[in-house]
Structure formats: C-alpha cells, structure tokens
Q: What sequence folds into this?
C-alpha cells in the first residue's frame, strides 16, 4: 500500500524564508545616506544580545542611526508586511475569494476616513499616549468592516460569500465619498492626508512598533491557529458543516482577527495595497495551496516583501522618497490582473 | 431496536415555501433506503435534515440522539455526505481532499495523526485511488471524482452515509461501478445508506427500500415492485412509463413516447 503524503509545511521552506528575510533586512538596514557595512550590522546586533559583548566598528552617530532610525523602520516594515500578507491570506480563505484583500472589506476606506478626521479636526499634538491619527484610523477601520458586516448580513435570501464582498465595495464607496467631501471642505489638510493615503513608513524611534505590536501578535496567533479550519472551509460552508466545522464561526473569528491586525498597521503606515494579494498567491503557486503552508510563509515573505519595497521607495528617487504604496501598487496591480485572469471564478 | 435515522413530524420552510410537510420516517441500521420523487419533492432537504444543515420543526434522531442537540462535530462523527455537486478547491490534491474526512476526528489545533493517514491510505487503496494521490481534484473525470468524494466520506468513518444523486453525472458504466462500490462497502462496514436518486431502475436494483416523495410528503414506500408502478409514476412524475419485471427480481422502468402511451 502506498504511503500517503499530505501537504505540510516543510522545515526547509521555513528556513529558506527566514534566510530571505534576514538577507533583505540586512541589505535594507545598510542602505541610506550613511552607509553601514552588513558585517558591522550583524556585530552590533550580536552586541545587543544579553551576556554577549562584541566590539563594533561603528561610531556613536552610526549606532544611533542604526538603532533609532534604520532598525525601527525595518522592524515596522516587517510587521506591516507580515500582517497585510497574513490578513490577505486569511480573507481569501474565509471568503473563498482569490481577490479578497483588506481593501475589499471597507477596512482601508474606514481607516482613511478616520485619518482625515484626525488631520482636519484634531490638533496635531495632544497629551494622549497614542496620537489621534492612529487611534481614529484604527476606529475607522473597525467601523468600516462592521458596516460591511451589517450590510452583508442584512441580506437574507441568496446570501453567499460574494454578498459580503459586494457589501464591502458599497461601504468603501460610501466612506470614500465622505472622505472626498471632507477633503474639499478642509483643503489645507489635503497635502498631509495625500501622503498618508499613499502609504509611508516613517518612524519616530520605536513608538510605532510598540504601538502595533500587541494587535499584530493577537491577530497573528488567531489567524495562524485557524489555518487547518480554513482548509476545511475551502469546500464551502455546507460541506464544511458535514465535516463538523461551523464555517460561520471560523469566518467570524478569522475576519475579526485579520481586521484588528490590518487596522493597527494601516493606522501607522497608511494605505499600502496589494501586499495581501501578491504574497499569498505567490506562495500558492510556488509551494502549496493549503493554508497550513500559505499562512505561515505569508508572515515571513510578507515581511521580506515590504522591507524590499520600502528599500526601493527610499532609493529610486533618492534623496527624495516615493510613497511605499506606489511601489507595491506598481508591482501589485499587474499581479492582481494576473490573478483575476487565472482564477476560475470568484467565490464559486 | 431504535432506528438509525428517525424523523417525526419534520417540516421545513424555506423563504415561505413549505419544502417538507410533517414528514415521519424510520430507517433501520444497515439498510439502504432510496429517496425518489420528482424535482423539488424534498429529497435533498431530507438529507440536509439528517446532517442538521437546515432549520426544521419536529424531531430528527440519529440513533437515540436528536440532531438538534448535537454539535456539528458530533453529527459529523455519525453522518457523512457525498454531495451532488461537491465544491472542488483548486490546487488541492486527492490526498489532502480525502484527509478532510478526518476533520471531525481531531481537534481544531491538532495536525493529522499517523492513524488518520492510515485510514486515508486504507480507504484510497480500497477504492483503487492509489495512483491518484498527487492529482488535482479539479482535474478528475466524473467517475474518478465520485470515487474521491466517496473516499472522503468513508475516511470520516461514520455509521450513516448520505448520497445526493450519486450517479446523475456519470455514464452507465460508471453508474454501475459506483453503485456496486457503495453496495460492497455498506456490507463490509455495516453502513446505513440513505440516497436521493433520479434513475428509478438503478434505485430499484440496489436499495432495500424506496421512499417516494412528492411536495414534501411520503406518497409511497416499500420494495421496488411496490413503489415503481406505472400509476404512481404517472401520478407523481407526470411521466408515461412501462414497468417490466426482470426474471432476476429487478424492476425496469421504461419511458414511453407519448404516441405509445396507453
């Protein structure tokens, strides 16, 4: 009798993925107005470990650039990329829709509206522990998805996984209309908001990283924990039920978790599109379509992808800087068209 | 003895329409019962009630337990389903697909055990699917696919097997093969089988008992020769047929052209 070999995450796939991530990170840290040698970066990293003392050739200024400017930005980019890629995979699995993405569910539009409200009506500096911008963007993102849920689930007859996506499109259009209205009224804030809408990874020390870390961890644990259930959902709600899985409940947990993570990263990084499409789909093509493989690898390659995109964003028009959302859209939009062409049907 | 499946006064309403109307039935353990009846009679809805996949009034029991009081996982340990139009996830190979049948046997967070893989290997061997392991389920032919979907249901190792139109999409050779396979498996494993069927002759050949449904109620039940009569078929299918009794005990339903009808 032939031994059966199911799809599973191979250890060496994970090892290679971490290798790619480490390589990308070291290159990206080294690049900039002040070049830092990769060997010195590694020595400085080692030196920071407890009980390890390594001589680095870096002077105080280079150390400061490395630890207060470059590292936070790379780590933030990694967290944002990992979360967007994981959320994209999670939405695709929940809705059995290859095109599902944080942007289809009203998350981004809601967060954008929150950000514009913050720019237009709140003072830039407050005594709050969290800036008003991330907070309102976060609330707006959650509000956007909640509205999508309400509209999608108010449909009674003929409700399918596509219904929610269509509801998301309607909600996004409505929220975008509100955004445009506010922008016209408060035109002096337009420039600032424009920068945020296109996405950017600017950091002030480690504040942004620490701000989003708890949400990213919670979202990651919940979504990764549901990876086997998402494979069961791939045969549709009715068959999933016949296999003992309540698809509605799995979907609710996964979508809420992915939205929590997305809203948190959108709040600090602005609107960076297409990561949630490019990364999971590339993994499906190269490795496996099982979520046991797609989701863990999406975390690692998502981080590497966004760090690389950020490197391109801050080098191609140096000393200026492109919004990172422009870079991801440049690669992502053609890829989206490719996925659209090759998918057999949406949520069929 | 308690029936393996028992309905008492089961009604189902969907969008205002009454799909099942106070239906009661008992299905003995180890028997194969065929549900026949015209399109829209409620055959699939009966199967969905057994799997607790639709809201109903009344009582559906699996053995002594009412399905309404069971969790989805508990039901999935008792009942497996071969759907009429299975959803085929693109890029999923046959092994991963059959392995989905083991889902109710393990927790949400645990990966497949050696035992799960043994069960899948055994089922695939039994159904002659050994060479298909790496094939994408979306690339299989009708007959191959039906065997793979049956394999997933068998990997679930439930005492009750539900089949929704198991032969509709198949050519005559594959129809026979699938029905013989189900017959062999139910004897080997002592399964209770409930199947919705369109082909009356095949339904009569393989099942122990037929239930004819029309507009959500049972209008006839019994052996093939009791249920497959020209009168009942004319009345409920609006079809003109002749019925031949085969010397081997089978009942053959032959459709007539209008000009021939008596």
A:
């Amino acid at each position: 009798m032939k031994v059966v070999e199911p799809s599973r995450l191979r250890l060496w796939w994970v090892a290679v993925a971490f290798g790619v991530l480490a390589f990308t990170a070291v290159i990206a840290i080294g690049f900039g107005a002040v070049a830092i040698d990769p060997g010195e970066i590694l020595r400085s990293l080692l030196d920071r470990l407890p009980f390890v003392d390594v001589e680095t050739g870096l002077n105080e200024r280079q150390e400061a650039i490395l630890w207060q400017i470059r590292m936070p930005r790379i780590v933030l980019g990694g967290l944002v990329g990992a979360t967007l890629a994981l959320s994209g995979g999670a939405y695709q699995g929940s809705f059995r829709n290859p095109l599902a993405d944080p942007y289809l569910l009203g998350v981004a539009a809601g967060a954008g509206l929150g950000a514009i409200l913050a720019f237009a009506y709140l003072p830039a500096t407050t005594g709050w522990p969290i800036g008003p911008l991330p907070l309102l963007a976060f609330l707006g993102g959650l509000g956007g998805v909640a509205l999508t849920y309400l509209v999608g689930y108010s449909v009674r007859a003929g409700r399918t996984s596509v219904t929610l996506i269509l509801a998301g499109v309607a909600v996004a259009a409505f929220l975008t209309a509100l955004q445009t209205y506010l922008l016209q009224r408060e035109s002096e804030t337009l420039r600032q908001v424009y920068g945020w809408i296109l996405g950017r990874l600017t950091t002030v020390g480690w504040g942004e990283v620490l701000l989003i870390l708890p949400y990213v961890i919670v979202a990651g644990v919940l979504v990764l924990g549901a990876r086997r259930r998402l494979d069961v959902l791939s045969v549709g709600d009715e068959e999933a039920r016949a296999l003992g899985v309540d698809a509605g409940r799995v979907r609710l947990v996964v979508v809420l978790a992915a939205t929590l993570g997305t809203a948190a990263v959108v709040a600090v990084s602005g609107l960076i599109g297409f990561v949630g499409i490019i990364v999971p789909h590339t993994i499906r093509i190269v490795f496996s379509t099982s979520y046991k493989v797609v989701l863990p690898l999406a975390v690692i390659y998502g981080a590497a992808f966004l760090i690389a995109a950020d490197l391109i964003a801050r080098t191609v028009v140096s000393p200026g800087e492109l919004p990172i959302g422009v870079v991801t859209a440049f690669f992502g939009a053609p890829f989206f068209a490719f996925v659209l062409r090759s998918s057999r049907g949406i949520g069929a | 003895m308690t029936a393996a499946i028992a309905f008492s006064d089961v009604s189902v309403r969907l969008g205002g329409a009454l799909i099942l109307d106070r239906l009661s039935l008992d299905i003995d353990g180890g028997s194969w019962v065929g549900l026949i009846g015209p399109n829209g009679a409620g055959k699939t809805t009966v199967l969905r009630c057994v799997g607790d996949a639709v809201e109903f009034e009344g009582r559906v029991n699996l053995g002594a337990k009412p399905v309404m009081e069971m969790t989805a996982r508990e039901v999935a340990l008792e009942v497996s389903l071969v759907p009429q139009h299975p959803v085929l996830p693109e890029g999923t190979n046959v092994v991963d697909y059959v392995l989905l049948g083991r889902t109710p046997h393990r927790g949400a967070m645990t990966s497949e055990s050696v035992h799960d893989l043994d069960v899948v290997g055994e089922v695939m061997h039994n159904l002659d699917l050994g060479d298909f392991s790496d094939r994408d389920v979306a690339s299989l032919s009708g007959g191959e696919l039906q065997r793979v979907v049956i394999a997933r249901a068998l990997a679930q190792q439930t005492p009750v097997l539900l089949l929704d139109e198991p032969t509709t999409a198949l050519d005559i050779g594959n129809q026979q093969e699938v029905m013989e396979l189900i017959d062999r498996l139910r004897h080997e494993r002592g399964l209770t089988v409930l199947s919705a069927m369109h082909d009356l002759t095949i339904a009569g050949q393989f099942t122990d008992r037929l239930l004819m449904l029309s507009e959500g109620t049972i209008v006839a039940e019994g052996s093939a020769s009791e249920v497959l009569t020209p009168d009942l078929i004319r009345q409920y299918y609006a079809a003109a047929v002749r019925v031949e009794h085969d010397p081997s005990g089978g009942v053959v339903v032959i459709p007539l052209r209008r000009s021939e009808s008596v």
Notes: Chain B has one domain: 5-260. Residues 5-260 of chain B form a domain with the Rossmann fold fold (CATH 3.40.50.300). Chain B has a mean pLDDT of 91. Chain B touches chain A at residues 15, 51-53, 71-77, 79-81, 83, 86-93, 95-96, 99-101, 103-104, 108-109, 111-112, 117, 120-122, 124-125, 130, 133, 138, 156 (CB under 8 Å).
